[in-house]
Design goal:
Largest sheet: 6 strands, antiparallel, barrel
Strand order of the largest sheet: 2-9-12-11-10-13
Mean pLDDT: 80
CATH topology of the largest domain: OB fold (Dihydrolipoamide Acetyltransferase, E2P)
Helix content: 10-25%
Number of domains: 3
Amino acid sequence: MSKAAIAALVIAAAGLAAGGGYWIGQKRPGGPGSSPSSSGAVAPAAAPAAVTVEAVRVVRASLPQAITAVGSLRSDESVTLRPEVAGRISAIAFAEGQRVQKGALLVRLDSTVNDAEVQQARANTTLAKSKYDRAVDLAKSNFISGQARDEAENNMKVADAALAVAEAKLAKTVIKAPFSGIIGLRQVSLGDYVKEGADLVNLEAIDPLKVDFRVPEVYMKQVRAGQALEISLDAIPERTYAGRVLAINPLVDAAGRAIVIRAQVFNPDTSLRPGMFARVRLITSDRLDALVVPEQALVPLGTEQYVFRVVDGKAQRARVEIGQRGDGRVEIRQGLGPEDVVLVAGQLKVRDGVPVTLARPLTQTAADGVQDGIAPDAAKNGAPGRPPAPGASPAKKG
């Protein structure tokens, strides 16, 4: 190919490149050929969709301040009957498990030897008294010395003491109930020979009962005699029993740094028994104006607690300081005010500033426990309510 042809091809290629650059420049956004609508700012992003949640109002309510503990039931009076003298059992006058009254005969030991000792002591006493009376008459006539009269008087007193000892031993062969209660299971049978101190049977007074429990020493200033409490038992889960603090041990347990408290619980139907495990709820005070929310409103984060408030239709996270808990409610000491609205369901789907829509409109809390924004069945069970029925209109404002 000639040099002239090569030069012509180079010039043609340069012209095509220049024309292409001009065309691209005309079509680029903002370029001379672009339309006015395509030039300028980028279109704004779409607003996030509202999240459906459930919420309640913060209300003022009576909230008892209580301390929870565990303890054991004890008999009001408890004794294991034991003989004070040795002997053979001649009579058992009770049935196991029956109620007995104070002073009722329970066990009798064979008293044959003791009866004989009493008769001997009485005879000696009669003889000693006769000698003393004769000595007094003779002393008045100066037939005996004063010393002889004094010896006769002393012998009479010794005989009286011996008679008292014999009668006391005879009385020890009869064992009676020291107080009213329910007899236990006997450890002996008719005809058994028992020694002093041998276990015969236990006797328990179980109405009322005592309950012993421990609380940490930090509550020392909050507990006092006469405070009300409630106990519940795993063995009888459907009932609670009322009681009162009877006494507080002045000695703090150094091993557990705890205060030992004894309370009294009435047991008229004897359904409670000594030794049962009890859960104690000691009511220390009753706050009438505490701010409370359902426990499911709390969102723990580390060692702190948060809730989501509804402010102008948006979720707003707030740190709170909580107090007592009970019956599915929690006291808010700081971080919320009365009439604030907090989420109780859907917190995991929201964050600060996200628009929210209530699944149910807020209403006044009813006396039967229905909470604002929660279905009745959920309020009773302490769980979030079910989704709204089709066609239900959500509240316009939180």
